[in-house]
Prior knowledge:
Layout: H1 4-15, E1 19-23, H2 31-37, E2 41-44, H3 48-62, E3 66-70, H4 74-88, E4 93-99, H5 115-119, E5 125-128, H6 135-147, E6 154-159, H7 160-164, H8 186-198, E7 202-206, H9 208-212, H10 216-226, E8 230-232, E9 247-250, H11 257-265, E10 268-272, E11 293-298, E12 312-315, H12 318-329, H13 339-358, H14 367-374, E13 383-386, H15 390-398, E14 407-408, H16 419-429, E15 435-440, H17 441-444, H18 450-456, E16 462-467, H19 472-477, H20 493-499, E17 503-507, H21 513-522, E18 527-532, H22 539-549
Parallel strand pairs: 1-2, 1-3, 3-4, 4-6, 5-6, 7-8, 7-10, 8-9, 10-11, 11-12, 13-14, 13-15, 15-16, 16-18, 17-18
Helix pairs in contact: 1-2, 1-6, 3-4, 3-16, 8-12, 10-12, 11-13, 13-14, 14-15
Amino acid sequence: xxxxxxxxxxxxxxxxxxxxxxxxxxxxxxxxxxxxxxxxxxxxxxxxxxxxxxxxxxxxxxxxxxxxxxxxxxxxxxxxxxxxxxxxxxxxxxxxxxxxxxxxxxxxxxxxxxxxxxxxxxxxxxxxxxxxxxxxxxxxxxxxxxxxxxxxxxxxxxxxxxxxxxxxxxxxxxxxxxxxxxxxxxxxxxxxxxxxxxxxxxxxxxxxxxxxxxxxxxxxxxxxxxxxxxxxxxxxxxxxxxxxxxxxxxxxxxxxxxxxxxxxxxxxxxxxxxxxxxxxxxxxxxxxxxxxxxxxxxxxxxxxxxxxxxxxxxxxxxxxxxxxxxxxxxxxxxxxxxxxxxxxxxxxxxxxxxxxxxxxxxxxxxxxxxxxxxxxxxxxxxxxxxxxxxxxxxxxxxxxxxxxxxxxxxxxxxxxxxxxxxxxxxxxxxxxxxxxxxxxxxxxxxxxxxxxxxxxxxxxxxxxxxxxxxxxxxxxxxxxxxxxxxxxxxxxxxxxxxxxxxxxxxxxxxxxxxxxxxxxxxxxxxxxxxxxxxxxxxxxxxxxxxxxxx
Length: 550
């Protein structure tokens, strides 16, 4: 008779899940040995939230559900931040927690807390598995919930005795099917194309839905047929490279000041797989003219028109919709609109302003000066894992996105610190690609022990820490002087990395950057560059300050 642990592992293999992001604990001592015996890869980490963050990152970069497995009680409560992060990022995380025995709940058992009740508000689906025979059913159900429609997190609590119990019967698992392709309404497609044809100042904004839908080729075919200008944002970064003549870069007004003008002047916005959320000023007059007409395409119907009145709303698969839009647009390419030259001029002005900042030579290093030099020494085919902090925001301003799926950010929860566990998953899944993580000294502290995880699993990522001895964004938001709780020390994080078995060094001057970067990528071990920088208000923080003043 199989045990619950054996059924759990067999079901994972059936579902195509071969990695478990975990931190060992008493509730898992039956299941982890079975997983190893059956050939699953165990990625043991140092904090339970790190496990959920790493599994979330794996799901985002592979576009498939990924699994974390942590112990109950404080292991479960630690995991909740990663679950919430995945849910807001619409990432198909399956977060499993062990728990106290199934028959001792509400009796004062050790680590007896209401785990499902805690998880339910921050995920799509949450349940406790009642018996070993039910594990395949609940695990397949969690997989289907996480990966259907708008993706998101699913949680299961599995009591320790359920993992350990033998069972003669096994409840059948629900059949896991791919999402059906939801075609767009033909009239809505026709209305959208008619509106775009008439527009004088149209803009296309591609968000994460284009990445999740695997719609890269369809997006490129559509903009090249229509000669419409494109901005990309969130996981849409790199789906069309920033070097494409019709791509105008980051569609984030906090990071691309050209957007603040171009979005305001646009007469038609085509929003593909992107919420009209806080990043787009909730569709309000701070960023868009009241006269701007919106076309929105999203697989999640309730998102359409949520914050902005729509001229056309299309609830459908983005890939199928782009195909239909391109077909409706006709075979011959549209004549380029004069508007394109206006956008190119705005782009040049913004790039020149940033380049002027990068020429600052005073010490400590200006973040823009660091990035301008840093970019000269990077390998090709690079994957970027971005954290939070003013230093990181300067990098996002200055770095072109060139490849799909190579631009991993924190997500709408803004979970600073999660880039370190995120880069664990990124390097595990793409071992032959160079991976660089950009973080501030404040953000690095959250999951500092995951540096050890990188070393133990032999993951040679390069970590760049912008060290301005403080919480830079908050320091600027408080006014830059007489700040409270914003100051840190210029700690030698490179020595921490060395002490854990990796490599590292400190950078103080521009001429040190090139040799240090080359050593870092050639080291073959995790390598941390501790860059002493000035605290300089980034464009992102300037945008936040302007919001605060209003």
